[in-house]
């Protein structure tokens, strides 16, 4: 590999990590980190919080659908710029919000950014990186979520919520400009026939697992810090917990190794088991520091790793139409993210957040039954 190619890979890796870190770590998951402050400022009850959480994920799903329609016509660069613009504007709007409608508008706009950014960056890597390095870069880019989460947690310790969101918006603008500059030479997309898939029996557990993953992820990211804040000693526990999730989430880089050593079936059971236990232990002792730490250490790497596992599993189920197949998987995941906060938020309003988390843990544990029937569907 030449020096120029090495620099391209390095710049793309940094730009991709930053884009995903901003879109997911700040714009999509920042709501859950600062939820106690937002509830106090705007007087939000738990059912309303659930509806807002589902609304942000609905925006993500809408953007993801538009990406599928526009990517072949526009190429990835305009979509990645759109992701950054939505993140910047949405985060800034939250920072200056003086009423609940303005807050919700900012959160919904920011929430779309992750839908705009995810799939297009995969196209960028396939276009600009040599085939022997593509998988390495593609595996690295999603870990921007872990970095973004860790940075957000540290920032929450240092400044109040409004200045934090101003800094989020500033970072989003810088990342957008960097990506716009880096991707300025991308070739125009070539028109291709629309890809269609024909789901088989092997796809059913894959879609079910994706839906469940969407449910547990959206519930945990939305409500975990709020539940901790009600019982844990000190205001710093929530941000420290969030930072630990992000740092531990870097363990998701080992997903490829786990699939090689354990296989898809056992990796599936291990990861969904870890997610279920991480959610349950937090529900049983939300004010106990050991339980909070254990939950973060289990949830962080398992959550990041499941995304990589679903990618590999989808490729095995849809080898002839990998892009279309994975789009269907992500769509099922998106449906889960919409259903989770609203449904469990309504349940929590009558039974409490710990009970809602235990129900979420049960659904997650039951997903182990949806592991693939064989290693190669």
Keywords:
globular; Growth Hormone, Chain: A; mainly alpha; 377 residues; 16 helices
Characterise this structure.
This protein is mainly alpha-helical. The protein contains 16 helices and no strands. The protein has helices at 3-28, 30-33, 35-42, 46-74, 76-96, 100-111, 113-128, 131-140, 144-158, 161-182, 203-231, 237-249, 255-284, 289-317, 322-351, 353-366. The model has no long low-confidence stretch (mean pLDDT 86).
Chain-wise SSE layout:
Elements: H1 3-28, H2 30-33, H3 35-42, H4 46-74, H5 76-96, H6 100-111, H7 113-128, H8 131-140, H9 144-158, H10 161-182, H11 203-231, H12 237-249, H13 255-284, H14 289-317, H15 322-351, H16 353-366
Q: What is the overall shape?
A: globular
Distance from first to last alpha carbon: 35 Å
The helix/strand order is HHHHHHHHHHHHHHHH
CATH superfamily of the largest domain: MFS general substrate transporter like domains
Biggest sheet, in brief? none
How many β strands by DSSP?
Answer: 0
Q: Look up the CATH topology of the largest domain.
A: Growth Hormone, Chain: A
The first-level CATH class name of the largest domain: Mainly Alpha
Classification by helices and strands: mainly alpha
Q: What helical percentage do the residues reach?
A: over 70%
Keywords: Membrane, Transmembrane, Transmembrane helix
InterPro entries: MFS_4, MFS_dom, MFS_trans_sf
Main location: membrane
Membrane topology: Multi-pass membrane protein
